[in-house]
Design brief:
InterPro entries: PUA (IPR002478), PUA-like_sf (IPR015947), PUA_sf (IPR036974), RlmI-like_PUA (IPR041532), SAM-dep_methyl-trfase (IPR019614), SAM-dependent_MTases_sf (IPR029063). The chain has helices spanning 11-18, 78-91, 93-97, 133-136, 139-149, 209-219, 234-241, 256-265, 281-290, 315-328, 347-361; strands at 4-8, 23-25, 41-45, 51-60, 63-69, 103-108, 117-122, 125-130, 154-159, 173-176, 183-187, 190-194, 224-228, 246-251, 275-278, 295-300, 305-307, 312-314, 330-340, 365-371, 390-396. The chain is α/β, with parallel strands linked by helices. α6 packs parallel to α7. It is globular, with a radius of gyration of 22 Å.
Length: 398
């Protein structure tokens, strides 16, 4: 039986917790000395020792744990995990039945009732990500539930809770029949090669599915598309399959070249007809400007924070400058797909970055569409900060 301790929270946090706020913030806790071992079940109480909620202790970003239930009598045990995971799978029935999309998020942390835990489905293979030692200490429940309620080919895991919040290097295989990677998954009929046992990344960011579809269906035909911070070239694949005249993929990581060639190849695209550049995106902007290159569509999906030899880039600080760089090489009436996964600012704030970039460039634009996480990445509507993805598709008017 996991041990339980009472944790007193301050008055201002109680109001948010009662409204359903799921994260237990460090500054909310009045008696932090009782928190010794991650994975301890914590009863949150007010100053009169009255019960508020129950959760677990696990350090993650700004929080020291997550609320799991507001019922003092509910045990955090195998049936608890089973009910949450089964309900999450039921909500995604349409995904399980969709033959054109075989990779999606099956369980999305606090959006499905258990913060710090995500489970991604890749055509029968599962990838479980653990975001704190606290939730990892309950892995026997999660793996037991998966064994009981579904047929899978194999389970892989990513531990993302070292002291800097980074992935812990290990053999990620847990159980089942090991995959012969890369395996090919489908997304809206497109093919993507993924490897679930190759470090922190898998080869595809599932949260951008709707954006790739929009690029393919609405914005690619006959266009020259520039895909910056291109990773394995998934946006470039979508563009070519949507009828793009040409794509240029730019990423600093050496392995992006082989990975992008692989993604083109599994879609029967001649990669030699496409342009793949392994270089710093900011250097590429300068190069494109010098050579007077112009693009019809520019995709901007930078990491929240990136460092190269010459540059340090932070979305919270440098996005307006990134927009300016993009404007300089975008055709008149061209499209810029501006995206960020930085959870530390809102969509409203993100749109001020875009506005500033255009203002500084002396240019004008109109917003064509905006979006956030797709529906398998379930998030609580009352607390938009957990819906971290922000995408604005806009047209450069002059």
């Amino acid at each position: 039986m996991t041990k339980t301790v009472d944790v007193q929270v301050n008055a201002q946090s109680i109001a948010a917790l009662k409204k359903g706020y799921p994260l237990i913030l460090k500054e909310a806790v009045m008696n932090p000395d009782v928190l010794r071992e991650e994975g301890t079940i914590i009863r949150l109480v007010d100053k009169f020792r009255k019960f508020v909620a129950k959760g677990y202790y696990g350090n993650q970003n700004k929080g020291i744990g997550w609320v799991l239930t507001r019922d003092d009598k509910e045990e955090i045990d195998f049936p608890f995990f089973e009910s949450k995971i089964a309900a999450a799978m039921e909500r995604r029935e349409s995904f399980f039945e969709d033959e054109r999309t075989t990779a999606f998020r099956m369980f999305n942390g606090e959006g499905d009732g258990i913060g710090g835990l995500t489970i991604d489905y890749f055509d029968g293979y599962l990838m479980v990500s653990w975001y704190s030692e606290g939730i990892y200490s309950m892995k026997h429940h999660v793996y037991g539930v998966l064994d009981k309620i579904m047929d899978y080919k194999a389970v892989y895991e990513k531990k993302r809770f070292d002291t800097k919040g980074q992935y812990i290097e290990q053999d990620d295989f847990v159980k089942g029949e090991p995959g012969d990677f890369p395996i090919i998954v489908k997304e809206n009929g497109m093919n993507f090669a993924v490897d679930l046992n190759d470090g922190a990344m898998t080869g595809i960011f599932l949260d951008q599915r709707d954006v790739r579809k929009a690029l393919k269906v609405k914005y690619s035909e006959g266009k020259h598309v520039l895909n910056t911070f291109s990773y394995t070239g998934a946006f470039s694949v979508a563009a070519v399959l949507g009828g793009a005249r040409e794509t240029t993929s730019v990423d600093l990581a050496k392995r992006s070249l082989a990975k992008t060639i692989e993604q083109f190849s599994v879609n029967a695209i001649d990669y030699e007809a496409q342009n793949i550049q392994v270089m710093d995106v900011f250097e590429y902007f300068k190069y494109a400007k010098r050579h007077e290159l112009k693009f019809d569509v520019v995709v901007l999906d930078p990491p929240s924070f990136a460092r190269s030899k010459k540059y340090t880039f932070s979305t919270a600080k440098d996005y307006p400058a990134l927009i300016m760089d993009a404007i300089a090489i975008t055709e008149k009436n061209g499209i810029i797909i501006a995206s960020t996964n930085n959870a530390s600012f809102s969509m409203k704030k993100f749109k001020t970055f875009i506005a500033k970039g255009f203002e500084d460039a002396g240019s004008r634009y109109k917003v064509l569409e905006e979006s956030s996480l797709p529906k398998d990445f379930r998030a609580n509507r009352d607390f938009p900060e957990f819906n971290y993805l922000k995408v604005v598709i806009l047209q450069k008017l002059k």
